[in-house]
Amino acid sequence: MILVGQYNSPFVRRVAVSLRVLGFAYEHDTRSVFGDFDSMRQTNPLGRIPSLVLDDGQVLIDSAAILDWLDQKVGPARALIPPSGPARQHALRLIALATGVVDKFGAAAYERIIRPTAYRWPEWIARCRTQGQGALAALAAKPWPATAALDQAAITTACALRYVRLVDAEQMPPGRYPALDALSARCEALAEFKATYPADYAVPKGE
Ligand SMILES: N[C@@H](CCC(=O)N[C@@H](CS)C(=O)NCC(=O)O)C(=O)O
Taking the C-alpha atoms of 90, 91, 96 and 102 in order, what is their torsion angle to the nearest 10 degrees? Predict the structure, then answer.
């Protein structure tokens, strides 16, 4: 199978880490969602990443749908999200907070970095950051025990934390959320995270 999208997207990265944790081999298509827009729209009509091209040619789009497919494939005993009950609801809440962190700091980053300077809207940036901070604080209030098995809530949260530090580092200085610093350090030390480490944020810069 082929994973489409660069690892500086935390949505791509959480799929890549999950593929590796679950033992799936994949090729990596590193076309840019910005630079290769027309070509990307041939893969996903939305022109977004990630997509996962299966061996039979079927194309899965949206990281949540891809992760659901992976969990179905490995079965409930190995799935990264609990299959049912309160444990599933708890995991889905944490994942919603973590993807919300990406959505909100991502929206602020698009406004701050990609949008031409003359059109930037400071109040909107502040609002997005407030929402992102709310989700970070809620995630930081959870225990994240070091002994817990790696699951999708931890994977998605760790990918979101690296993304915040990539696009808006001042929003998460070391020490503000010690529990999240510890989770991030633990995850980034794993082979699956090292192999997908996003070193930079390659997007068009607004003038
Ligand atoms: N809900 C989607 C969100 C994916 C998403 O926002 N991808 C971003 C990269 S982080 C993207 O493709 N942005 C380009 C665009 O939307 O134009 C998912 O989970 O896959």
Answer: 140
For the entire predicted model, the pTM comes to 0.97
The closest residue, in CA terms, to atom 19 on ligand 1 is: 63
Q: Is 9 touching ligand 1 by the criterion CB < 6 Å?
A: yes
Q: How far is the CA of 189 from the centre of ligand 1 (A)?
A: 26
**Using a 6 Å cutoff on CB, does residue 48 contact ligand 1?**
yes
pLDDT digits (tens, 9 = 90+) for 28-57: 999 999 999 999 999 999 999 999 999 999
> Does residue 163's CB lie within 6 angstroms of at least one atom of ligand 1?
no
Tens of pLDDT, residues 114-166: 999 999 999 999 999 999 999 999 999 999 999 999 999 999 999 999 999 99
Q: With a 6 A CB cut-off, is 63 part of the ligand 1 pocket? A: yes
Residue 100, ligand 1, Cβ within 6 A: no
